Amino acid sequence: MTYQDKVILITGASSGIGKELALLLASEKARIILAARNEAKLLEVQAQCLSLTPHCHIVLMDVTDEKQVQEGAAKAIAIHGRIDVLINNAGVTQRSKLIDTSPTAIRKLMEVNFFGPMMLTTALLPQFKALGQGQIVVISSLAGLFGYPWRSGYNAAKHALQGYFETLQTEQPIPGLATTIISPGRIHTDITYSAITGNGDTYGVMDPGQAHGIPVDACARKIVSTMRKKKKMVIIARFERVLLWTKRYFPPLFYFIARKGN
Ligand SMILES: NC(=O)c1ccc[n+]([C@@H]2O[C@H](COP(=O)([O-])OP(=O)(O)OC[C@H]3O[C@@H](n4cnc5c(N)ncnc54)[C@H](OP(=O)(O)O)[C@@H]3O)[C@@H](O)[C@H]2O)c1
User: Fold this and answer.
1) Which CATH superfamily is domain 7-259 in?
2) What mean pLDDT do residues 32-61 have?
3) pLDDT recorded at residue 261
């Protein structure tokens, strides 16, 4: 199956994984709708997409603002009269120890990584119901599957995301709705530059671990192949996945390895 002519709304499409997904799906002649806050960056991605597909639009949206999410969802539906696929990708990570992290910073991480995708999904479920089908893709993280140092709020938000969308998978309110949860490990994007620190400031640094992560184009290809198969869940990671196994089968080793992480 291809995504040709499917209307695909991608949040966080101005950079990283979202941008790469937009380009890959545009190359299948999908009808792309790019959402994020940075208009200049979105215009650059739009120009690249339009060299691959005849249809690519922009919807400016801060996913933490309920009014912008509701208006953005309505604008996105109005473009082609429907959304076939929603990719909840926008996100922001964290770099600060739990003891040094303010409740305001944690709230900010929850707003972007959990409340944003939850609000957009809530806004779009009625139109998926009217269509009788659709696909929701959620870019979670390995951080949604185990705790890890320096990411308390990010871990909390991604665990919440995991719980919310697994519930959607179990309730299955629309028979033709496929929900796919993607849990990447380290992917080489600029994500650590915009990471939130303990007082809510921006980290502004590329972490060495991030720079050696999986190339973003390889990650995007794996996500699209998972979407195509309508799998419920996939992990995209290298050696980080050992933490999952140790957590389940040999917890002392999990804590030994994880405590050394940052
Ligand atoms: N890179 C990794 O190692 C990794 C691993 C696991 C999971 N992930 C997840 O993958 C997703 C994409 O991350 P990435 O690595 O591609 O990072 P990225 O390059 O920093 O992209 C993040 C995107 O989210 C958007 N965004 C941030 N805050 C937003 C807000 N309030 N409203 C709307 N859009 C917002 C940004 O756009 P604007 O600034 O223009 O709004 C940007 O397009 C995230 O959910 C992240 O948690 C990444």
Assistant:
1) NAD(P)-binding Rossmann-like Domain (3.40.50.720)
2) 98
3) 83
